[in-house]
Design goal:
Elements lengths: L1 E6 L12 E5 H11 L2 E3 L2 H34 L1 E6 L14 H10 L9 E2 L8 E10 L2 E11 L1
Parallel strand pairs: 4-7
Antiparallel strand pairs: 1-2, 1-3, 5-6, 6-7
């Protein structure tokens, strides 16, 4: 069965504020409703949301502006990671993950969660790698990661 909800917050892979969505009962009951991300759909909620649209749009723009500010700092930053390499100097012993990148960014003064650092797969070679950092649904920054021989 499906439950019809109105989103009160942006939810990845589901929708934006004000969207009406149908989701599985368990997803609604166990996650969306308790966290306050959504409410049960009704005409009263739709009217209330319509009156709050301007405020929601203003908050959204503020979030985007804050994310763009952080994105500018991330784009200016490059981090260097010394790693052990094999004798032929082509492969790393181990790999560079988003956890290590997040830790080094924190040392640089940027508090970035590891979950928003997007690596398709861990870095296993020396050189310069560009890593995407998704700060907001509409804002993605590119970070330069230098992997060097230790």
């Amino acid at each position: 069965m499906a439950t019809e909800l109105i989103l009160m917050d942006n939810v990845d892979c589901l929708g934006s504020v004000g969207d009406t969505v149908k989701v599985a009962d368990g997803y609604a009951r166990n996650y969306l409703l308790p966290k306050g991300y959504a409410v049960l759909a009704s005409k009263a909620v739709e009217r209330q949301l319509a009156s709050r649209k301007a405020l929601i749009a203003e908050q959204y723009q503020a979030e985007v502006a804050a994310a763009q500010e952080i994105a500018a700092k991330v784009a200016e930053t490059s981090i260097t990671i010394p790693m052990q390499v094999s004798e032929d100097e082509e492969k790393l012993f181990g790999s560079v993950t988003n956890i290590e990148i997040a830790r080094l960014l924190e040392e640089e003064g940027l508090d970035i969660e590891r979950r928003i650092i997007e690596l398709a797969e861990p870095i296993k070679t020396l050189g310069v790698h560009e890593v995407a950092v998704k700060l907001h649904k509409d804002v993605t920054a590119t970070l330069k990661v230098w992997v060097v021989k230790a």
